[in-house]
Every structure is written in structure tokens, then in C-alpha cells.
Amino acid sequence: MANQQVAARYAKSLLDLGQEMGTLEDVKQDMDLLAATVAGSRELRLLLRNPIVKHDKKLAILTAIFQGKVSDLTLKFFIILTQKNRENVLEYVAPEFVKQYNVLRRVQVAEVTSAAPLTPALRAEMERLVTKQTGLASVTLTEKVDAELIGGFVLRIGDQQIDDSVRTNLRRMRTSLQETTYQNKM
Fold it and tell me: What dihedral do alpha carbons 21, 24, 27, 29 form, nearest 10°?
């Protein structure tokens, strides 16, 4: 929890600085890259958390990974974090930055899981549904495929979930039939 709060403060500072310098979109891309890199590398996460590894060594590794791929502002941000011995919060800063960026830009992030990849028409319909639910015009839709759903979809918007999958509907029918059978036996 403490790491999340610290990460939120650093993300807010970076967001404000990116806005002030007019490089917010570049920083957003950098944070997307950082989030993907940290999420995809268990070794990097463990290194950033390791208190035994010296901070200058961590900075050297971050620089080697991201030099030429991220903006100067982001590299300076890495330097500041390592100087303050806060590189362990880097894995939390990137997602927090993206969350705050989306709030600032009024972008609603939603996740749709379906049994098969969405067609362009279904994708547009999902975006309309999210827009109708949230009132925000801009939607970023993350798509996942789960063949176990059989058909239909599960849509997550923040902490809300709309489950219109065949699997769930079959489960509901089975539960209803079991309850009816149980009541008839009494």
C-alpha cells in the first residue's frame, strides 16, 4: 500500500511535468513501454526490489534497457528515483501514471473478454456500450479471448462487470433448474 501511495505521487509529478514541458504524449508512451517491460520481466522486477543491489547499478541497467527508447525526461525521472532510493516503486509508477493520464484525458478503459476475436462491428458496439455506461466519449478497449465462454462476452468497466456469456447463462439455468427440482421434491 505504501508503494502505491508513493507511486501515485511520483506519477502525478511526472504527469504535471510532462504537461508543463509539452511532452505528455511522449511520457505516456514511455510509461506504456515501462509497464510492458516490467510486467514482462520477472528478473527486472526482482532487481528493482532488491535492496542488496546498489542504486547506481540499477540505474545503469535501466539506462541500458531504455536509452534511446524513452524521452530525456523519463531518463531523468529514472535518475531521480534511483538517487532517492525509490526504484522499487517503478513497477507501480507506470500503471499509476497511465491511470492518472486517462482521468486527465477523460479516457475510459474497459476490458472485453469474448469466445472469439471481436469483429470491427462488435468492437464499435462495445465502445458504444462503454460510452453509454460512463458518459465518456473516449474509450480504450482491451480485448481478450477465452474459448470457455462458449459465446457472448464479459465486459469490465472499472469495478463494474457485464457478463452476457453463454457459460454464465448456462450456469444460471442449471442453478434455476436445481432450485426448481429441489422445491418440487419438498
Answer: -150
